[in-house]
Amino acid sequence: MIRLTARAEPPVRVAVDALVPERLAGLPADEIARLALRVGARTERVGDWFSVAVDGDVRDGHVAFEGACRRFDRVGAAMGSGTITVAGDAGAYAGAAMRGGRIEIGGDAGFGAAQGMRGGALTIRGDAGDGLGGAAPGDRGGMRGGVVAVHGSTGAACGDRMRRGLIAIAGAVGAGAGARMIAGTIVAGGAVAPLAGMGMRRGSIVALGGLGRVPATFGDCGIHDLMTLRLLARVLRDLGLAALAERVGPVRRLMGDLASNGRGEILVSERT
User: Fold this and answer.
1) Of 23, 55, 87, 98, which is most buried with the most CB atoms under 10 A?
2) Which residues, in sequence order, are CB contacts of 69 under 8 Å at separation 6+?
3) How many Å is the maximal CA-CA distance in the chain?
């Protein structure tokens, strides 16, 4: 394991996307400490901000961030393999454009976590900010694959332009979840705020905690007990969201967004 312990919380935001397992694996601690790190308009060294230690095999593909890390952005961005753990909070864009591997954040994650994600697994033990699994500025698609599990709540625009993958949230979900969604699945254990599914064409939003307001451009298709939701419950258990899985059952199916000729669906639990 490569252990990176923040010396202090930085006064500015610092991007750490270069500190991914595939780049650091096999490097000794002193060499990692000499790697360049961009801080604002300056180029500094990893050792200026982190105490670096190597425990055991340096090739095991595990990078651990410890200390005050909420201003360190892009943790695990574009990573393709290995494991990253963050002991507490992480900054913005954690797991953005992630291609593989596993990230586990022990606290909260900032804006844009899993933005443009393509593969791998991201677990957030606390809350996630706005734009979870959404689209990067100028990008026509959001999350394209992979799995995100949030044990807390998340902000607005979750899954904006989402194309593929699974986002499971134990708590509440902010406004505009699944807006302009093309495919994929969003599961919410808490209440889903208004504007969910706005402009969606395909995909599923599973509202186990109820829906703040039923969109006017969705058609009510009645109550269903879907086999696919039973399979989804198994996946939720595997993600450590057993309490969420237990609430899966009959749902009211709303199809839309009819204003976009969409064939997506919002499945609202009848157990709420």
Assistant:
1) 98
2) 6, 75, 86, 87, 88, 89, 90, 91
3) 63
- Which amino acid is present at 48? D
Beta-carbon neighbour count of residue 15 at 10 Å?
17
Site of tokens 């919410």? 188
The reply to whether omega before 257 is within 30° of 0 (cis) is yes
Q: How much is the pTM?
A: 0.95
Quote the pLDDT of residue 49.
95
**Are the C-beta atoms of 75 and 39 separated by less than 8 Å?**
no
- Measured CA to CA, the distance from residue 178 to residue 133 in angstroms comes to 10
Which DSSP category does 23 fall into?
A: H
| pLDDT tens-place string over residues 202-239 | 999 999 999 988 788 999 999 999 999 999 999 999 99
Torsions phi, psi of 12, nearest 5? -125, 170
Q: Which residue has the tokens 């060294």?
A: 45
Neighbours of 217 (CB within 10 A): 16
pLDDT in tens, 22-72: 999 889 999 999 999 988 788 899 999 999 999 876 667 999 999 999 999
